[in-house]
Amino acid sequence: MQTFRVLIIGSGFGGQCAAINLLKAGITDFRLLERRDFFGGTWCQNTYPGAAVDVPSPLYSLSSAPFPWTQMYAGQDELRRYTRHVVDRFGLEEKIELGADVESMVWDDVSRHWTVQTSKGVFQGQFVINASGPLSQPQLPSFEGVHLFEGKSFHSNRWEHDFDYRGKQVAIVGNGASAAQIIPAIAPQVSHLHVFQRTAHWVLPRPDHRFKPFERRLLKWPLFYRLLRSLIYLKLESRFIGLKYSRAGIAVFERMARRHLERQVKDPELRRRLTPDFTLGCKRVVLSSELYPTLCRDNVTLHTEGIERLDASGIVTSDGQSLEVDLIVWATGFNATDDAIPYTVIGQNGRSLNDAWQPFPRAYLGTSVPGFPNLFVLAGPNTGSGHTSALFMLEAQMRYVMACINAVNDQGMRSVEVREEAEAAYTAKVHREMTKTVWSWGGCRSWYQNSSGKVVAMFPGFSCSFYWLARKMKRDDHLLRE
C-alpha cells in the first residue's frame, strides 16, 4: 500500500489545477491517479477530427500557466501541447501514476484516511480530490441490433485513427458540440455522410482568430495576458444576464442565430429542420461557422426521422429506410450527471455516495458532501457554466478546497466535512435560483439535467458569484475532527 497526504483522481486540467495549488501551499506529498496510459484528460483523450475548444484560449487556461496561443479557439493538438507545458512547468509528471484505474474508495473513520483500490494496487490518502471530470464517461446508445452491425463503430471520445474513413459511407449519430466539429472536418473526405439529428441546436458563428507573430509575443507578457483574460472574461460573463435575468437578452442572441442560419442555409425545408423549438441557452449553444455550409453539401444528408434499429449493413430508420454504412460515429455525449463518478465511494457509516446522491447529485459549493470527510469533488454538482470557462470554476473550487485543507493543518485536526444542514441550505438556494434560469424554463431536455429532471450540471449565477462564495471556508458550516 502506498500512502500520501493527498490523492488526486485524474490528470486533466482539474487534477493539474489541484496539484499546482498543493505545490503553492508547500504540500508535495501527493499523487495523481490516472486510469489511462497517458496523462492530460479531455484534450489528450478527445482526438476526433476537428476537436477544438469553444471558449477563447487565453481564458480557457490556468491563471498560473499562461501560454502563447496560436489562435483564439485552440485546436486539440495545441491544447494537448498546453497540457504538456503545464505538466513540465510544475514538474507534475513524476507525481502521476498512469494505468491506475480507481475501482473503489472507502473511508476509515479510525485512521481518518481514504483507502483507494485501483488496478495498480491500493493507495491511502488523508485527503482525496476527485478530478475525474464530468465529461469522461461516454454515453453509448442501446439501439436494437447494435451487436449485429458488421462495420466499424466507435464513440467520438474514443476515435480510432487506424480506420480510414476516406471514401467511405459514414453515419454520425448526434449533432451537439462534438458532432458540429467532426461533421465539417470529415465531410469533404467521405463518399457520403449521414447525420442523425434528434433535436436541432442553436448555432452561433465561431469568431476565431489566428494570432499574428507580434500578438503571440504580446501574449508572453504577463500584464498583457492578464488584461486580455480579463477583457474576455467580462465579455463572456455578461452573457449570463440573458441566461437568467433578461429574456430580451436571449432574444438578441436568438436573432443572431436565426440570421446565421438564414445566411448559410438557403433551402427553406432544411432551414426548418435546423431551427430549434426551445429557447436559446436551454441546451449548450454550438459555435460553428462551418456546420451549416457542410450540411448543405451534396454528399451530406440530414436525418431527423430517428433510428429504429441497426442490422449487419447499417442503419434502419424509423420511416423504413435502410442505409448501408461503413462507419458509425456515436457523438452521443457523456454520463455527466448521475454517473459522473463511475466507481464506488463509501463514506461514514458504510453509506455510499450513490445513495447519498439520490434522487439527484448535490454538494456544498459543488465540492463537499456530508458524511464524506476529506473528500472534494472538482467540477461537481452545479458547478458548470454555460457562458464562461470551466477552468475559472475549477480554480474557484480549489480556493475552497485549500482553505479546508489548511484549516485541518492549522488547527491540528485530521478531518473536515461539511455539515448536513449547511449543504441542505446551499442546495435549496441553488435550486430556487435555478428556476429563474433558461435551463429550467427554456423548454428543452438536456444533459444539464439528471434522470429526476433536476438541473444538476450548472451553477445558477454569475461565475464571479461562485468565486466569491468559494473564496474561504465558513467555519460554522463545517465539522473539524481530531
Kindly report the CATH topology of the largest domain.
FAD/NAD(P)-binding domain
CATH architecture assignment name of the largest domain = 3-Layer(bba) Sandwich
Main sheet specs:
8 strands, mixed
Looking at the structure, what is the overall shape?
globular
- Cα-atom Rg, whole angstroms? 23 Å
Number of strands: 20
Provide a count of the helices: 15
CATH class of the largest domain: Alpha Beta
Mean pLDDT across residues: 94
CATH superfamily of the largest domain: FAD/NAD(P)-binding domain
Q: Domain count, please report it.
A: 2
Share of β-strand residues: 15-25%
User: How much helical structure, as a percent, in the residues?
Assistant: 25-40%
| End-to-end distance | 24 Å
Q: What structural class do helix, strand and pairing data support?
A: alpha/beta
Low-confidence stretches: none
Kindly describe this structure.
It is globular, with a radius of gyration of 23 Å. 31% of the residues lie in helices and 18% in strands. The strands form five sheets. Strands 1, 2, 3, 4, 5, 6, 17 and 18 form an eight-stranded mixed sheet that branches. It has a five-stranded parallel sheet with strand order 7-16-8-9-12, covered by helices on one side. The chain contains 15 helices and 20 strands. The model has no long low-confidence stretch (mean pLDDT 94). Helix 1 (13-24) packs parallel to helix 12. Strand 5 and strand 6 form a beta hairpin. The longest helix has 21 residues, at 390-410. It has helices at 13-24, 42-45, 76-89, 177-186, 213-219, 222-237, 240-245, 247-264, 268-273, 291-295, 353-356, 390-410, 420-434, 438-441, 463-469; strands spanning 2-9, 30-33, 96-97, 102-108, 113-118, 121-130, 152-155, 169-173, 192-196, 203-204, 286-287, 300-303, 307-310, 314-317, 322-324, 327-330, 344-346, 375-377, 415-418, 478-481. The protein has 482 residues and is α/β, with parallel strands linked by helices. It has two domains: 2-137 and 335-481, FAD/NAD(P)-binding domain (3-Layer(bba) Sandwich); 146-330, FAD/NAD(P)-binding domain, CATH 3.50.50.
